[in-house]
Design goal:
Number of strands: 14
Strand content: 5-15%
Largest sheet: 4 strands, mixed
Structural class: alpha/beta
Strand order of the largest sheet: 2-1-3-13
Length: about 475
């Protein structure tokens, strides 16, 4: 009996030794400062973001990198979509494609697919439990793809959605119609205000019928579906053990239809340029929902065809579905490390750890309007301290956007859908299906009215039950085909 007990205890001890070794890999990997490891980083940063990233890479190379034997070089691949194509081409071995980078910016869906193609490093073995616990829980949890405890995607900078408003054009309208920014707290409230704004702007040219202007737009329709269903108590993509269940009941989708398609085809909402900040600049809308990073691009002036003038802005909470739970979108790419040698993987973990430490991460935040990833970094006091100590400048709109999110950060609930096999193509259906139909149908409504049909009758036709049912059936088909292909 004693012998059996000793054998059992020895087995347990050996198990913990093995586990301990797997988490203490940093003690066995040795780097040589005289023969530094070179790491390539692909990202989608441009402009000030790229400049800030390059500056931090240079600082790393001259300090910790020089000391330990690590050299990091970043390469912008252009836009997010350009980066995703470059990663997919490299992972698929497309003729003429570059070799896989050592580290790359990635959203969870792309990283999930890449992990299956070429393998990604398990970063959990290079961080202690206490180190990982210092990061915002939701940000870290996004990087666990399977039930194997491996961390494949590391958070470096995140964002969420806010609402930006052209105050200069909002205020005279608001005074006349008795509305305020507080009326924009829900999507349904935005629709009511947008209807009044359409009436207000239509009346400015009484000689021309139905030429009211759109009030509102949004940058990401995929976020609209994902966060809208979550606020209503469901997950549009419910993922468990890699298997996906779609939650697209008729009732849920009807509320989303009424919250975007209907006001769009009535002319209350709009989407004209590539981003809604561009639509504010041209005067086509005066409010939009976009990421915190979009605040950097909110215009200082409206430059329309007939006039140009300076505008002031307001930053508000992103509107939620009425009576919904106040979930905020969690977005922003993390960094994945391509599976390679222990030396390169370890070197990559040192860089990521350095880049996300409080002071360095907040320096990047000041130039990018991203949110930092450590719990202790997500406060205005922490941001203000770094700005003062480093004598940094920060775009006022970015600062106000970050303040909006950081105030009470610890009490806010963030959500992102879990990754799965066909997540990227499935989100593409959410991004374009309803938006493209709304845009095309609005154009058709105006065309039919211009050719003699009664405007109100045509609008009623496009917003009625039959129109919804036709869209819903087509949407179900398209999303099922993307998810389960």
């Amino acid at each position: 009996m004693i012998k059996k007990l000793l054998v059992a205890l020895l087995a347990v001890a050996m198990m913990f030794t093995v586990v301990g070794c797997s988490k203490e890999k940093t003690e066995t990997v040795k780097l040589d400062p005289n023969n530094p490891v070179s790491l390539t980083v692909w990202h989608y940063y441009n402009g000030m973001q790229q400049e800030a990233f390059d500056t931090l890479c240079e600082e790393f190379n001259l300090s910790i990198g020089k000391e330990k034997g690590i050299y990091v070089k970043g390469y912008s691949q252009g836009s997010v979509s350009d980066l995703e194509k470059a990663i997919n081409d490299a992972a698929d071995g497309v003729v003429g494609a570059q070799d896989m980078p050592d580290i790359f910016s990635s959203y969870a869906d792309t990283a999930y697919a890449t992990a299956k193609k070429v393998g990604l490093a398990d970063l959990s073995q290079y961080f202690t439990k206490d180190e990982l616990n210092a990061y915002v829980d939701g940000y870290i949890n996004e990087g666990y793809f399977y039930n194997d405890g491996a961390l494949y995607l590391f958070p470096v900078a995140k964002s969420t959605e806010i609402m930006m408003v052209n105050k200069t054009d909002f205020e005279p309208f608001a005074e006349k119609y008795g509305v305020s920014l507080s009326d924009l707290e829900t999507i349904e409230g935005v629709i009511e205000v947008a209807a009044k704004y359409y009436e207000y702007t239509d009346a400015l040219t009484p000689e021309v019928e139905n030429d009211g202007k759109a009030f509102y737009g949004r940058d990401s329709m995929a976020n609209f579906f994902v966060i809208g269903t979550k606020q209503m108590g469901a997950e549009i993509f419910e993922v468990k053990d890699g298997n996906v269940t779609l939650n697209i009941s008729e009732d849920l989708m009807r509320r989303l239809w009424d919250a975007y398609y209907v006001p769009y085809v009535k002319g209350y909402f709009g989407a004209f340029g590539k981003f809604r900040s561009e639509d504010v600049k041209t005067g086509d809308i005066i409010a939009y929902t976009g990421s915190t990073t979009s605040s950097m691009y909110f215009p200082d002036r409206v430059e329309g065809e007939d006039e140009a003038y300076t505008i002031e802005y307001a930053v508000c909470e992103a509107p939620i579905m009425a009576n919904g739970e106040h979930y905020k979108v969690q977005q922003g790419a993390g960094m994945a490390v391509t599976k390679s040698t222990p030396e390169k993987e370890y070197a990559a973990s040192i860089f990521l750890k350095w880049f996300t430490q409080k002071e360095k991460n907040l320096e990047f935040v000041c130039e990018s309007a991203y949110l930092p990833v450590l719990k202790e970094s997500n406060t205005i006091d922490a941001l203000d301290k770094v700005i003062a100590e480093k004598n940094l400048t920060i775009n006022p709109k970015a600062y106000d956007s970050l303040s909006n999110v950081m105030n009470g950060f610890e009490n806010k609930k963030f959500y992102t859908s879990s990754c799965f096999e066909n997540g990227y193509s499935s989100r593409s259906v959410l991004e374009y299906n309803m938006a493209d139909k709304a845009k095309a149908d609005r154009a058709e409504i105006l065309n039919r009215a211009a050719n003699g049909d009664t405007y109100a009758d045509v609008v009623a036709e496009y917003t009625g039950d039959e129109s919804f049912k036709n869209w819903y059936d087509a949407f179900q088909t398209a999303l099922n085909a993307a998810v389960y292909k």
